[in-house]
Design brief:
Elements (H helix, E strand, L loop, with lengths): L12 E2 L12 E5 L6 E3 L6 H18 L4 E3 L10 E4 L3 H7 L10 E6 L2 E6 L4 H13 L3 E2 L6 E2 L5 E4 L3 E4 L5 E3 L2 H7 L4 H7 L19 E2 L7 H4 L22 H4 L4 E3 L5 E7 L4 H17 L7 E4 L13 H10 L4 H17 L3 E7 L1 H5 L17 E5 L16 H13 L3 E5 L17 H13 L2 E6 L11 H13 L5 H13 L3 H17 L18 H17 L4 H10 L1 H9 L1 H7 L7 H19 L10 H16 L18 E4 L20 E4 L5 E8 L7 E6 L7 E9 L4 E9 L2 E7 L12 E11 L2 E12 L20 E4 L24 E2 L10 E8 L3 E9 L13 E7 L5 E7 L5 E10 L8 E8 L4 E7 L2 E9 L10 E8 L7 E2 L16 E5 L2 E3 L5 E2 L1 E3 L2 E5 L6 E4 L10 E9 L2 E2 L5 E8 L4 E9 L9 E4 L11 E4 L8 E2 L1 E11 L2 H4 L3
Parallel strand pairs: 1-10, 3-4, 3-5, 5-7, 12-20, 13-16, 16-17, 17-18, 18-19, 19-20, 30-42
Antiparallel strand pairs: 2-10, 6-7, 6-11, 8-9, 14-15, 21-29, 22-29, 23-24, 23-26, 25-28, 26-27, 28-29, 31-41, 32-33, 33-39, 34-35, 34-40, 35-36, 36-37, 38-39, 40-41, 40-42, 43-55, 44-47, 45-46, 46-55, 47-53, 48-52, 48-55, 49-54, 50-51, 50-53
């Protein structure tokens, strides 16, 4: 341990905090390395009390050089001077009548020559010992790595004292369990000495530092309490073991969210207004209580929403409760009030805790007037989790006004608030260690929280082990202030720097102060998962100056190994950010003196220091994620320090200072090496089986329009640049790229740091660089080029292949076949349009495929036939299948059905949900195997493979007028795959956006599908004497082989001068300049408020350019008024009729 004692500490006699007596009343604890005192243990000490007693003896010996013997209570009478720790019979005899202490309350006092140290509750005595050492000996424990200040005393004299105190926060949980997992050899002592609980992990042999029992899971627990039964959902809490076999979405779908489309879904939340859900919650919570034997003990049960964005429920009852409570969380609050009332009567010692989290959900409290009595009951406690705040400023800063107001409002409706605190941002998706000056912000938040009646704090932090920057100072301040918020922050910071940095303390403090001041002055809103380059003070001048300062600090600490170690680990995040911004440094100061290879080597050495101090790993053991995370961050930014591969020659005319190149990253995933990549690294993702990789420009501030690019899968091509589009930038913009990692399918290339404050409207051309190989898509860089807005983008960049429009077909609706696909007259059903080769678009030579589709009211029917079928069932299964994807009105649910030549069928259900980030629209995609609920008749004979299938419509994703679908024929090798819908579409796992469309029976064109000069309530309207003012183009992608029956639903308010006046509907072909179908009808037939159907009697063969129109009144001026169109209707003529049979 490091000791910084001065002569001021020698022979020091410390006075009590409340009373000072004369020197004659002093107790001499030790003098000249000798002591007359012994330490008396409690009668039945807990294991942690045994540890504490031994630690007290060791620390007193370290301070005085004296041996303080530890004796049993039965031996106390043999000694005249004693330090009693905890409760025992001789201690009670000395103490006299003892007042009952509250949980966590601590006392140390002198009685004659004796010293009594004891406390209330399970932890009180342990923490009273360290309170005594901190107050009376001025001991400090600064760091989880064991750094402390234990002053040396030749003569330790203690004045009479009597201190009784309560900690500011009654429960102080600094996520110690994360240190337990690393095996850090010194962290146990640090957290115990700093009086920190370990409330998240309960050790089976010693629960002393777990003052409040957790019954069930911790946070986001509703999926554990009422599991849907759908496996592998992206939720923080899976089913609790007691309910692992429950399938509530199957048995009680009414418990779950009614989405905005009016459909129950397990992807969102719960219908909190549902009485059955409330009763089930109560019953399951009681089962937890019984299983945990907590019926009559203090305990907490977390009941809070899944970590998923969006509103809770759109049913009318939940919406009414939102209005009643004047909060998006209204329905949940009402549900919790009912549950808490039940528990208050039956289990009065149990607290029900819920997250005040996410502005769309429960961050904003209920209105006081909606709560009986105006306040939440004592057993219902909000768990304030301000993840939407500005992480760079304290809660009382203007940027956090909403957070502060929410906290204050919770204080008005709650007798107590518990805090789920975020001390740091999170390294997602870019693994990083930022250089943010937001350490003191946390200290101020603790004071603000205490002033608003917060008494419990749990800390969810991202960087506790690495010791980079000042995270350990932040931890020290939080532990100290959680114990006593009145402590002087400046004094604590000074003591920390002196102890940790020794000879380099003064310049290190100046560096710290500068970061804090710069962060306070930064006008950005720092979100929970930022780009570390977001802050505007990471200028080249600052980075270079700070590097020089650290060189000087290392020189100052050169003879103090411990201080030098801390200086070097503190430097690690500066080194990371310096490497990350190497392109900027080279651009602005090409003559800089930095050696990036040396910086990288120094960073790697720092990792080894961190591992040696924060972890206890046996030789040969696998390095933990923390090691991989640090290494991944360093390798990524070190790659950026190298010169990238040249851009295409066409970019040579662009001034170098007008070009930026940015590498992408993915959540919790290393960016792997790729020798072909510009910087030697690239994100890899599975290439869409058929189609294109998607890239999207996104502005998190919502000020700039999105840009999207689909790059067709082109195996074997080297890296090429593709033009994404032209846009201004913001401080929080990025480009989403395909990736495969934790937390979603998309990686991110942060480009907001390229935004220039002095030119905020500057336009940039964006290019993405990618290649395809081995069924993967690799993305290595995003290239930004400054533009004046008039110069066209650089044409040397590769262009994407022309995308065909989505295929559209209208399938016949037949008389009921009762789910028997062999009962369908398939000869009367027209085959689907010919399939094409998936990567060329060419018509295939072999094999020959034919698919037919029909509906009745209950089933979708499909018939497939293939000549010269290739083989039998393959391994893996999907290498030789007909692969079908079905979606409903939205893409929230997509069903995949695969059929092998053997007739075996496999199904997968893909679902979408949102992330927990309320400022993100990123999707999470989940795949689960699904049982096949249809019927199939399969035959394979003489090289001909054919099957007929019936799929229940209730089993398919629900749709109203159109089913979205894709059909593929897989042959193992991608180049042999065939597709019905356009070949350049993304596979669903990369986010389907352009499926084909199948309309049962008819296709209607209405609303915005129709052009008109006027609209009334979205209905196209035209003056009857202005012919062709209502038109609709033939939908791109429509199957043009059949003849179509064309109709229009019309009405008119016309007044007639001539009862014989007519109008017409028709189809016009611009290529031939001819009307290719029309129908003349009397105007009087459509006059009135009801729409009338007008039909062209003969089938019309449409062309790609043809359009439908409503003609004018004839004779002209013989009628006056408007014509309104409800819809054009297209129905294919029966197949036999269309072929003249």
């Amino acid at each position: 341990m490091r000791l910084h004692a001065s002569s001021n500490w020698l022979a020091l006699s410390l006075c009590c905090l409340t009373t000072t007596l004369s020197a004659a009343a002093e107790q001499i604890l030790a003098e000249n390395g000798k002591t007359e005192y012994v330490i008396v243990k409690p009668t039945t000490p807990l294991p942690v009390e045994e540890t504490t007693v031994a630690d007290l003896a060791a620390l007193l010996r370290q301070a005085t050089g004296a041996d303080f013997s530890i004796v049993e209570p039965t031996q106390a009478g043999q000694h005249s001077k004693r330090i009693f720790v905890g409760y025992s019979e001789p201690m009670r005899a000395v103490a006299g009548e003892l007042e009952e202490l509250a949980n966590e309350e601590r006392v140390y006092r002198t009685v004659g020559d004796d010293i009594l140290i004891y406390g209330g509750g399970a932890c009180g005595t342990v923490f009273a010992v360290y309170q005594f050492l901190e107050d009376q000996l001025h001991c400090r424990w600064f760091h989880p790595w064991g750094d402390s200040r234990i002053p040396k005393y030749e003569r330790l004299a203690l004045a009479s004292c009597n201190r009784r105190m309560m900690p500011s926060y009654l429960i102080r949980d600094m996520k110690k369990y994360s240190w337990d997992r690393t095996g850090c050899p010194t962290s146990d002592d640090f957290f115990r000495r700093q009086r920190v609980h370990n409330n998240t992990t309960i050790a089976p042999t010693d629960t002393t530092l777990v003052p409040l029992r957790q019954v069930g899971r911790h946070i986001h627990t509703l999926p554990a309490l009422v599991p849907s039964g759908i496996p592998n959902l992206p939720q923080r809490c899976g089913p609790h073991p007691l309910f692992k076999n429950k399938k509530y979405f199957e048995t009680n779908p009414e418990y779950f969210t009614l989405n905005s489309k009016g459909k129950r879904t397990y992807l969102g939340h719960y219908c909190f207004s549902n009485a059955g859900l409330r009763q089930t919650l109560i019953e399951n919570m009681e089962k937890l209580v019984a299983a945990g034997r907590a019926t009559d003990t203090p305990a907490v049960i977390d009941v809070d929403q899944a970590d998923t964005g969006g509103r809770f429920c759109y049913c009318e009852h939940c919406q009414a409760l939102e209005k009643k409570y004047q909060s998006p969380g209204g329905a949940m609050f009402d549900c919790l009030l009912e549950i808490s009332a039940h528990f208050q009567k039956k289990y009065p010692r149990i607290v029900i805790r819920f997250l005040a989290y996410n502005r769309q959900q429960t961050e904003l409290p209920p209105a006081a007037e909606a709560i009986p009595g105006g306040r939440l009951p004592e057993n219902l406690v909000p768990y304030f989790a301000p993840i939407t705040g500005d992480f760079s400023k304290a809660w009382d800063a203007p940027s956090n006004q909403v957070i502060y107001d929410s906290l204050a409002s919770w204080g008005r409706v709650s007798s107590r608030i518990w805090l789920y605190y975020y001390p740091s941002t999170f390294p997602r998706p870019l693994i990083h260690y930022p250089l943010f000056g937001n350490i003191l912000k946390c200290a101020h938040d603790y004071r603000i929280g205490h002033a608003h009646n917060i008494r419990y704090v749990f800390n969810d932090e991202a960087y506790p082990w690495e010791n980079m920057g000042f995270v350990s100072l932040q931890l020290y301040l939080r532990t100290m202030l959680a114990n006593d918020v009145t402590l002087d922050i400046e004094t604590m910071v000074d003591e920390y720097f002196t102890a940790i940095y020794g000879p380099a303390a003064k310049p290190m403090r100046a560096y710290f102060d500068e970061l804090e001041q710069l962060m306070a002055a930064d006008d950005g809103y720092l979100r929970w998962n930022p780009d570390p380059r977001f802050i505007n003070y990471l200028t080249v001048d600052n980075l270079l100056r700070w590097q020089r300062d650290f060189d000087a600090m290392e020189a100052l600490a050169a003879k103090d190994a411990r201080a030098l170690m801390h200086v070097r680990t503190t430097r690690m995040n500066l080194d990371l950010n310096t490497m990350h911004l190497a392109p900027k440094i080279k651009r602005e100061q090409p003559d800089h003196a930095l050696d990036f290879d040396q910086i990288y080597a120094r960073y790697l050495a720092g990792i080894e220091t961190v591992m040696a101090n924060s972890h206890n790993i046996a030789p040969g053991s696998k390095k933990p994620w923390q090691y991989e995370k640090m290494l991944a961050a360093g390798d990524h930014v070190y790659a950026v320090t190298k010169e990238p591969k040249p851009l295409p020659k066409a970019f040579a005319k662009v001034p170098p200072d007008s070009i930026r190149q940015v590498t992408p990253a993915c959540n919790k995933t290393r960016v792997p090496p790729d020798p072909q990549a510009a910087f030697g690294i690239a994100l890899a993702a599975d290439a869409p089986h058929l189609g294109a990789a998607q890239y999207r420009f996104n502005d998190s501030m919502g000020q700039l329009p999105a840009l999207q690019l689909d790059v067709p899968v082109q195996p074997g091509r080297e890296y090429q640049l593709y033009y994404l589009g032209r846009t201004a930038l913001s401080r929080e913009c990025d480009v989403r790229v395909p990736a495969a990692g934790s937390g979603g399918t998309y990686g991110t290339a942060f480009i907001g740091h390229c935004w220039e404050k002095n030119e905020p409207e500057q336009l940039w051309d964006l290019y993405v660089s990618c290649r395809f190989d081995d069924a993967k898509v690799y993305t290595d860089r995003i290239v930004l080029v400054k533009t004046d807005g008039r110069t066209p983008p650089i044409q040397a960049a590769a262009t994407t292949l022309t995308q065909r429009p989505s295929t559209i077909m209208i399938a016949p609706v037949i008389a009921s076949a009762d789910g028997d696909p062999t009962a369908v007259d398939w000869n009367a059903v027209m085959p689907m349009a010919a399939w094409g080769e998936s990567f060329s678009g060419n018509t295939p030579k072999t094999p020959e495929t034919e698919m037919r589709v029909a509906f009745d009211n209950e089933y979708l029917y499909l018939a497939y036939r293939e000549q010269r079928a290739s083989g039998t069932e393959a391994a893996p299964f999907w290498n030789n299948t007909v692969d079908m994807f079905f979606a409903g009105d939205t893409l929230a649910s997509v069903l995949q059905v695969g059929v092998a030549p053997s007739g075996r069928v496999r199904c997968n259900l893909y679902t979408l949900t949102k992330t927990s980030d309320p400022n993100s629209n990123e999707d999470i995609r989940v795949s689960n195997a699904a049982p096949f609920e249809g019927k199939i008749n399969n035959q394979s004979e003489d090289g001909v493979w054919q099957w007929q299938m019936a799929l229940p419509r209730h089993w398919l994703p629900q749709f109203t007028t159109v089913m979205q679908a894709n059909f593929f024929r897989n042959h193992g090798e991608a180049k042999l795959s065939l597709s019905w819908n356009p070949i350049y579409t993304r596979g669903y796992l990369n986010g389907f956006h352009r499926l084909g469309r199948i309309y049962p029976g008819r296709l209607e064109l209405s609303g915005r599908d129709v052009t008109s000069t006027r609209r009334v309530c979205n209905l196209p309207v035209m003056d009857g004497n202005h012919a062709w003012d209502i038109k609709a183009s033939v939908p791109s992608g429509l199957d043009l082989r059949p003849a179509y029956r064309i109709a229009a639903r019309l009405c008119s308010n016309a007044t007639l001068k001539d009862e014989k006046a007519t109008s017409r509907i028709g189809v016009y072909d611009p290529a031939t300049k001819k009307v290719i179908g029309n129908r003349v009808f009397p105007i009087r037939s459509i006059i009135g408020e009801d729409f009338k159907t007008v039909t062209i009697s003969k089938g019309v063969t449409l062309t790609e350019a043809s359009f439908l129109y409503v003609g004018g009144f004839l004779p002209e001026q013989q009628a006056q008024g408007d014509v309104f169109l409800e819809a054009f209707v297209l129905e294919p003529m029966p197949w036999t009729m269309a072929n003249g049979n």
